[in-house]
Write a structure and sequence with these properties.
Layout (H helix, E strand, L loop, with lengths): L5 H36 L6 H29 L6 H60 L4 H21 L10 H46 L4 H24 L3 H13 L11 H33 L14 H7 L5 H12 L1 H21 L8 H16 L36 H11 L5
Length: about 450
């Protein structure tokens, strides 16, 4: 018993799943249209009715285009067998896939990951603002590092003045003279500079506390569930306030003020006139004041160098929060939402798999059909017609294998005709072709 051909089973299976294929293609096109509507709605501006109808029309056009394109591919690609023509269809299918991604898939991704991508944009911006606040705070606190040097210089000048007044440690003569007056003046200037640096510390701490509060509010806006649009608006407001705090922090740095004050110590140094009662004491006072001048110049140079180092630190650039649409955010942060992109593209390009399956099945059916014998493919009616045609060709003297008339047999030698010739009937001489023609016209003989 001969089994049913594999090609016949494949053909019947393809016919059986044809309805399911059309249904699946329609569902995929509809799903893509729905997500396209959700994505394109966030890109349009205008009244609610305009946005609604424009998004509906666009999504409907996308659904129809996807269904029509894949219907053409499912019909034609499996039937084409030529290599060049099949490559041309593959190139056309690749172009169509790129166009589908351009008009639908990225909008599907915007619908799937739009809110998450906007939250990602807010989180990245928040991180940048936090770094800016820390940098501005560090720059402001850098000026505080000058305070110990200034305080030590003030204590040294004040201590030398006290020693000179009480024991005459510098000139050898006790009392309050020109040297004591000069040292006291330098100590006072240094204490004033230290007070300036100390006063800025409280302002820096207050501004940093305000900036930290703004950052905490922004973090809540990023992580709080709910609609993304109101949270993005509030986030932008907080970002503006935080930018103002960061700018104020940069203005509180006293490094520039310290640099100017230290330069004034040396450039504005005015030594009093020696007031010693004797020439020897006056000379000693002049020598001590010259030493004080050199010490003040060295202290001024050290403070100026330290202030220059602080001022050389790059200032914090002004940052601005730029609101994005969900589609723009998905494109900018696509690496963080690869699963959403994969799902959006798969909805549109899943029919590629169906096209390839049908192409492989049709190729298998063609190979199986070529290997079958004719008897396994023809019906009973076709067999009867073939047998009748064979008998006609045999009767007409045509070679079945070549389709050409058979050669006539060799003519025998002539013999002496009979003396009495019998009258032959009119149809005594009948050619094979006439016989075959009679069979066709007269029909079968009665039994």
């Amino acid at each position: 018993m001969q089994l049913k051909p594999n090609a016949y089973r494949l053909n019947e299976t393809v016919k059986g799943v044809e309805t399911m294929t059309r249904f699946a293609l329609a569902v995929l096109a509809l799903a893509s249209g729905v997500y396209t509507y959700l994505g394109v709605r966030g890109l349009l501006d205008g009244s609610a009715s305009f946005v609604f109808f424009a998004a509906i029309i666009y999504s409907a056009a996308v659904s129809v285009a996807i269904y029509a394109f894949w219907s053409f591919m499912l019909r034609f690609v499996p039937l084409v067998t030529s290599g060049v023509q099949r490559l041309a269809l593959f190139a056309t299918m690749a172009i169509g896939c790129a166009m589908i991604i351009a008009m639908s898939s990225w909008l599907n991704a915007a619908a799937l990951a739009g809110s998450a991508s906007l939250e990602q944009h807010m989180a990245v911006t928040l991180q940048g603002y936090a770094e800016d606040l820390d940098q501005a705070h560090a720059n402001a606190l850098a000026s505080q590092s000058l305070l110990p040097d200034v305080q030590r210089a003030a204590e040294r000048f004040t201590g030398l003045a006290a020693d000179e007044r009480e024991s005459g440690a510098l000139t050898g003569t006790t009392g309050s003279g020109s040297v004591v007056q000069l040292l006291t003046q330098m100590g006072t200037q240094m204490n004033q500079l230290a007070s300036t640096i100390t006063g800025s510390r409280d302002e820096v701490a207050l501004l940093f506390e305000q900036g930290s509060a703004r950052l905490a509010t922004m973090r809540e806006l990023v992580s709080t569930p709910g609609q993304i649009e109101p949270r993005a608006d509030s986030f932008q407001t907080e970002a503006v306030q935080l930018s103002a705090v960061i700018a104020a922090l940069q203005q509180t740095g006293v490094a520039a003020s310290v640099k100017r004050a230290s330069a004034d110590l040396s450039a504005g140094f005015i030594a009093p006139v020696a007031d010693g009662g004797t020439t020897d004491l006056a000379n000693r006072q002049d020598q001590v004041m010259e030493t004080v001048r050199a010490s003040v110049a060295a202290q001024s140079a050290a403070l100026t160098a330290a202030a220059d180092e602080i001022l050389a630190t790059p200032a914090v650039e002004q940052r601005r929060f730029v609101p994005l649409s969900s589609a723009e955010a998905v494109l900018r942060y696509w690496q963080d939402f690869i699963p959403s992109w994969a799902g959006a593209i798969s909805i549109d390009l899943l029919p590629v798999v169906l096209v390839l399956v049908l192409m492989i099945v049709n190729d298998a059916m063609r190979r199986d059909s070529e290997s079958l014998q004719e008897a396994e493919n023809i019906t009973a009616a076709e067999m009867l017609r073939a047998m009748a045609l064979f008998r006609q060709m045999e009767a007409a003297g045509i070679d079945v294998a070549t389709g050409k008339p058979r050669p006539a047999p060799a003519t025998p030698l002539p013999t002496e005709p009979p003396l009495v010739a019998e009258a032959a009937p009119d149809d005594a001489t009948v050619t094979p072709i006439d016989a075959a023609q009679r069979k066709r016209t007269d029909g079968p003989r009665p039994a």
